[in-house]
Amino acid sequence: MFDIGFGELLLIAVVALVVLGPERLPKAARFAGLWVRRARAQWYSVKSELERELEAEELKRSLQDTQSALKQAQTRLQNEIEQAQTRLQDEVEQAQAKLQDEVDAAGRELGEVRRQVDEERPAIADGNEGATPPADGDDEPRRP
After folding, report:
1. N or C: which end of the chain has fewer CB within 10 A?
2. pLDDT at 21 over 80
3. Number of domains in the chain
4. Which GO BP terms, alphabetically (predicted)?
């Protein structure tokens, strides 16, 4: 932490012994050890708090990235659903138009058939006056 080698520690110990003397040196060493422990504990506390803060920031960033990815996916899915709905609506409208055209064509054909039947009905009635209607399987009406 302080990058102090063994030789430097030995030099500090000799200077402390000369300055403080043998009577106060043990008390001073305990006091210095206490302050070193407190400084080290404070250092580790700050370090762990910074690590927690960094982890919290990383979690927040990850959460924001996930939220933005989910929003993009939601937008993309909504667009796909709207496109599918539009295509389906177009297909339904085309099918309805085609069905209506077929119904109209069938109605015209039915009208044409009715017109032909109405035209042939007087001719049949004129040619078969007094005849009985044909029996099943007979092509021509019977005469009495």
Report:
1. C
2. yes
3. 1
4. protein transport by the Tat complex
